[in-house]
C-alpha cells in the first residue's frame, strides 16, 4: 500500500473581522513549545499563512484523523496568539500581504516583485510514495491530463481583494504567475527529468530545485510524487478525497507504465486550457474531459476520473468513500460554492470568513 502525506496551508485571520493577520511567527512560537507539534507546523512565504504537514499514512481514516488533529492544533495555537485559522485558498477580504523574514523569501521578493507580494494563496499538496525515480517520472508523465479534475473538485477561492473573481479557483490563476509553474510534457525518463530541472536552475530565473513548481513533481526530500494543483480544501473530507484520488492516480499510472501503456499525448497548451477551465468552472459548469479534451458536464468528467482509478481504489478499499464524497461535492458544491452562498445569504465577506473558520474545524 502506497503511503500518503498531506501539506495544508491555512490563512490566519482576525476571529471578529475576518481580516488576515500577520501572526505566523507568534503561532509558530506557540507550536514550538508543544513537543508533539515541533515538526508539524512551518512558516510560509507570507506572515498571514501557516503550513502543516501530516505524517505518511497508509489508511485514509488515519490520514483524516491526522488532518483534523492538525487543524485543531493550528486553531488552538492561533487562538493563543490572538487569531484564528481558515482553510481558504485566497483571502475574501482585501489584504496587503507581508513577506516573511529569511534570505530565500527576500530573494523571491526582489526577483519577482509584485508577483511575490500577491502570492497570498493557499494550497493542498499531496505526497504519494513511489519505489524509484523511474517510477516517479513515469507517474508524472501519465497523470497530467487528470490533474485539472482535482483542481475542479478542490476549488475554494472565488474571492480576491474584496471582489468575486467569477472563478472557482482563482488561487490557481495567481499561482501560474511563477515562471516554473504549470503542467509538463512527458519527460520519458528520470535522467531527462533531472536534466530539465538542472537546466531550469542554471538559468538563474529560479533560486533552486525547491522552486520547481510543476503541477506534479518529484519531491526533493522524500521518495514521493508531489501533486500540487489543489486549493486548500474548506473541509477535511475534501482534503482526504484529494489524497485518495492522488494515490489512485499514482497507482494507476505505475501499473500502466509497467504494462507498457503510453502517456496520453496532450500538449502543454491543451493541459493549460483544461487547468484554466477547471479554475473557472469548479463543479458549477462544464469541464474539459481529460481524454478527449472536449467540454462535458462536471458529473461526466468526475465519473471518468473515478472510472480511470477504479481498480486502484477498489484494491485499497477507498472506492465507495471516494464515490460518496464526489457525489456530495457535485450535489452540494465545494468550497467555492459554500463561500458564494454565504456571501449571498449574509451580504458580508467578513461573515464569509468567520463562518469558514467554523467550517475549517468541521
From TrEMBL:
SUPFAM superfamilies: Glutamine synthetase/guanido kinase
InterPro entries, alphabetized: GCL_type2/YbdK_subfam, GCS2, Gln_synth/guanido_kin_cat_dom, YbdK
Top class in the EC scheme: ligase
MF (Gene Ontology): ATP binding; glutamate-cysteine ligase activity
Catalysed transformations (reactions): L-cysteine + L-glutamate + ATP = gamma-L-glutamyl-L-cysteine + ADP + phosphate + H(+)
UniProt record, GO biological process: modified amino acid biosynthetic process
Keyword terms: ATP-binding, Ligase, Nucleotide-binding
Its job: ATP-dependent carboxylate-amine ligase which exhibits weak glutamate--cysteine ligase activity.
Protein name (database record): Putative glutamate--cysteine ligase 2
Amino acid at each position: 500500500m502506497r503511503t500518503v502525506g498531506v501539506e495544508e496551508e491555512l490563512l490566519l485571520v482576525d476571529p471578529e473581522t475576518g481580516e488576515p493577520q500577520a501572526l505566523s511567527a507568534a503561532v509558530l512560537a506557540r507550536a514550538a513549545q508543544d513537543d508533539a507539534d515541533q515538526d508539524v507546523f512551518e512558516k510560509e512565504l507570507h506572515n498571514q499563512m501557516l503550513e502543516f504537514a501530516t505524517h505518511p499514512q497508509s489508511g485514509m481514516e488515519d490520514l483524516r484523523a491526522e488532518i483534523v488533529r492538525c487543524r485543531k492544533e493550528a486553531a488552538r495555537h492561533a487562538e493563543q496568539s490572538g487569531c484564528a485559522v481558515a482553510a481558504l485558498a485566497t483571502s475574501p477580504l482585501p489584504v496587503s500581504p507581508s513577506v516573511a523574514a529569511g534570505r530565500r523569501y527576500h530573494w523571491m521578493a526582489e526577483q519577482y516583485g509584485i508577483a511575490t507580494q500577491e502570492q497570498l494563496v493557499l494550497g493542498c499538496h499531496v505526497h504519494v510514495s513511489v519505489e524509484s525515480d523511474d517510477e516517479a517520472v513515469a507517474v508524472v508523465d501519465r497523470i497530467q491530463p487528470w490533474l485539472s479534475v482535482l483542481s475542479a473538485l478542490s476549488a475554494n477561492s472565488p474571492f480576491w481583494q474584496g471582489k468575486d473573481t467569477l472563478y472557482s479557483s482563482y488561487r490557481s490563476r495567481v499561482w501560474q504567475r511563477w515562471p516554473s509553474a504549470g503542467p509538463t510534457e512527458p519527460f520519458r525518463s528520470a535522467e531527462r527529468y533531472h536534466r530539465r530541472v538542472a537546466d531550469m536552475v542554471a538559468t538563474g530565473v529560479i533560486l533552486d530545485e525547491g522552486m520547481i513548481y510543476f503541477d506534479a513533481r518529484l519531491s526533493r526530500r522524500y521518495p514521493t510524487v508531489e501533486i500540487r494543483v489543489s486549493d486548500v480544501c474548506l473541509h477535511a473530507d475534501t482534503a482526504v478525497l484529494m489524497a485518495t484520488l492522488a494515490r489512485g492516480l499514482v497507482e494507476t499510472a505505475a501499473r500502466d507504465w509497467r504494462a507498457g501503456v503510453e502517456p496520453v499525448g496532450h500538449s502543454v497548451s491543451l493541459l493549460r486550457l483544461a487547468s484554466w477551465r477547471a479554475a473557472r468552472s469548479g463543479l458549477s459548469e462544464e469541464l474539459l474531459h481529460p481524454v478527449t479534451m472536449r467540454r462535458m458536464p462536471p458529473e461526466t468528467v468526475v465519473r471518468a476520473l473515478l472510472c480511470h482509478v477504479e481498480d486502484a481504489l477498489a484494491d485499497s478499499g477507498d472506492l465507495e468513500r471516494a464515490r460518496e464524497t464526489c457525489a456530495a461535492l457535485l450535489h452540494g458544491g465545494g468550497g467555492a460554492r459554500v463561500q458564494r452562498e454565504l456571501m449571498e445569504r449574509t451580504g458580508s465577506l467578513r461573515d464569509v470568513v468567520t463562518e469558514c473558520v467554523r467550517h475549517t474545524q468541521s
